[in-house]
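Checklist before submission:
- one chain only
- standard amino acids only
- sequence pasted in full

Submission:
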Amino acid sequence: MVILGKSTKFLLAATMLGATAFGSAASAQTAVIDEVIVTTTRSDSLRIDNAGNIATIDPSETVNLFPVEMLNRAPGVHIHRGSGQEHLTAIRSPVLAGGAGAGSFLYLEDGIAMRAPGFANVNALMDAMPQADGSVEVVRGPGSALYGSNAVHGLINFISAPLDESGTSADLAYGSYGRHALSLNSAQDHGQFMTRVTLDMNGETEGYRAAQSFGQQKARLEAAWQDGATGYRLSLAHMNLNQETAGYAQSLADLDDPEDAGELPAACQTVNVPAYENEACAKANPNGDAYRDATATRLYVRMVTDLADGATLTLTPYLRSNEMDFRMHFLPGTPLEQNSHYSYGLQAAYARNAGWVSYVAGLDVELTEGALKETQTNGPDQYFNYLPGTHYDFEVEAQVIAPYLHAVWSLSDATDITTGLRWEMTDYDYTNNLETGRQGKLYRPESQSNDFSDVSPKLGVVHRLADNRRVFVNWARAARAPQVTDLYRLRDDDKAGPLEAPLPSSFDSETLDSLEIGYRAVYPGMSYEATAFIMQKENYHFRDGDDRYETNGKTDHMGVELSLDWMLTRDWSIATQLTYAQHEYAFDREVGQVQFGSNPLETITDGNMVDGAPETLANTRLRYKYNERTYLNFDWEHVGSYFMDASNSAEYDGHNIFAVTADYVLSGQSRLSLRIDNLFDEAYAKRADKWFGKDRYFPGEGRRFMARLSHDF
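Returned file contents:
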């Protein structure tokens, strides 16, 4: 990787500015009281000594039903929530969709991926169970050598609460649009072992939009026990989701060709403002038959043995099962996808602290069997050539083997160097159950095997300026093999002629090189961090504005992130996360020559901003302690403007949303919380993009409330 020119100057200048501004605040030696993190080393360590960024979130602080609202409090994170549990993620990136969105982010539960590499899902947060977690850790950019596929732009690790004491608690919540939740958590000491059972049932019966609702049930059983030098932890989790989905909203003003207005819901056919700005149109649903039914089951047993030489051996066998049926409302026609995958794997790690160096040597092995079938029952689509019948029906057997080494070297009393290397070998064995070749716009490759080999090096330096202040530099390369949908669910030209679809043999692994420089400090009552980053991505796989796949895209990313948590007075405190970033295309591409009406397709130009990538993000929480029982939180969420297409021809203006939360301690065991979101009833879009000459949105919800009653027994 070569990083030169104005980008490097920007990176260095931004970091020096942040370090100078904050570093002058105090230079005295101060006892460090800092958060303990586990994700980057798979063992307890202080956040201040981490050679890179990491944000920690407490799930108990949220009153909402959706993890999205909680995770957007981290700097550099921008997750678009669609309908129900649907979402698209951005972590130091644009909001990515399809295989790019599924494969660029790694969602973990206690360090184990919730979905198999190659079979990920953009909506994987619906599997998470924050009610059973003690903390959530977010790493922006490539993960450490301990993590492989999908930890490209970032990872999110849901970490279970310690299982060390008995207790029972219950949460009951109710809010606007018939939203409701009941969560039960009970931990018991059985003498020789501890157990904890967590149940969560939540949903919405009405929905903000027509024909929108969901019901979701989650359960988790955990157990922990000790046998001699070996400690055991077992976790069994299950999720079931039944969702009635609302699709994108469009109004007359969102169409380049007014003749298409007849395709809109009646409430939108005469609306001359964007769909999200008109309440009647925003609440309409053009995809009343869309749905999503999904189940997920995960089981692991972690065995940690203390060895005679002071080292630790950790073995974690695990199983996972995922099944989902959903109507693909975001594609032409009425395609129905049925997918599933079943995995079993093993994480093995040997960790030792030799004084001048501490290291972890490990091996991750995973085998997966997956299947995907897509069927369309309606007639041929006029424009897109999606024909009725079975579009795809294939099976894939996947094998991933990844040895790695992660080490922290004590170069001096003030400086540590972190090194890491991961070699990940991925093999796919694909079987096509249908006729090979074209079916209208679509293309089915013949049965075949494909393999990928990726090496991901890491290098970080942490220098202690004082007991409570650190400066760090972190360079990392992330790589991911293509998702199975990237390789085997292809699009071709929509007319007869030579094959134009990329064949699986032409795909390379996506790579991202990242350099970040940061400064962090911890004082009594205040902690802050300033980080600047620059990244370059190659072999970017994504679906373009012609509904076809690009396999060799290139993008550049750079930005500055600031986070501050400050106790202003005895009763007032503030926590804020600020992000400024630029995400640009670094290649040229003519995206089709076909025109629909008078509207040409988008064109990708080197230097254009990537669509779905706001330059500015902010999330600020002002906390006030009224008395010993009453607490108030005031939240401000800022999303800056961003382009809605690769041509940068349409722009969403961004929005500012405010919320207030009141917490009242009823007794030593009970707490009542009330939250009002979108306090000023702002009209906004949770997501905005442009597709085939039409602006489309997921409208933001109006003013809404959620009340929660919690009790510890």
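Reviewer check: The chain is about 5% helix and 55% strand.
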